[in-house]
Design a protein that fits this description.
Radius of gyration: 16 Å
Number of helices: 5
Structural class: alpha+beta
Strand order of the largest sheet: 1-4-3-2
Number of domains: 2
Largest sheet: 4 strands, mixed
Length: 161
């Protein structure tokens, strides 16, 4: 997949984005390195909390470029895409560098960035021609989505084929 882009100011607040930005502005390399490690650990914990097999995954954060790099092996394409979304839908992350390998390759899903006023029904109508297919999108983004009405502008969603 390579490099995916996300909205840096949207997402889960797992670490202090403003602290990272301040350390970057102050050119405080030691502080930035410490914050990068804490951010990577927070993202790794968040991925594990979703119930994905995180054994063998490596996650690194670079505050200077607002980039998460994730590597390792996952079982299937859906897990790969969900791990990438977990990494990118975090406040302070602008890019995700994907170095994941899939054991059982499948066709890739599309991604949709939520805009103001979007609903899962409207998104389903756009991609599937049927607003009632919103549960397919909801299920494809579980467990990151807890309820079909709880999406936010800037969030990136997985749209399966």
């Amino acid at each position: 997949m390579g490099l995916l882009s996300f909205v840096r100011e949207a997402g889960e607040k797992l670490f202090g984005r403003k602290d990272v930005e301040q350390a970057k502005a102050d050119n405080a390399q030691d502080k930035l390195a410490e914050l990068n490690q804490k951010a990577a650990a927070s993202i790794t914990t968040y991925i594990a909390a979703q119930g994905f097999d995180t054994s063998g995954l490596t996650v690194a954060f670079d505050g200077a470029s607002s980039t998460v790099s994730v590597g390792g092996v996952v079982a299937d394409q859906a897990t790969r895409e969900k791990v990438l979304l977990c990494c990118g839908n975090v406040d302070g992350v602008e890019h995700v560098n994907d170095s994941l390998t899939v054991t059982n390759p499948e066709p890739e899903a599309q991604f949709h960035t939520v805009a103001r006023g979007d609903t899962l029904s409207a998104i389903a109508k756009t991609y599937y021609g049927n607003a009632n297919a919103y549960m397919k999108i909801f299920e494809a983004n579980k467990p990151m989505l807890g309820h079909p009405d709880k999406i936010y502008p800037g969030q990136k969603l997985r749209i399966p084929a």
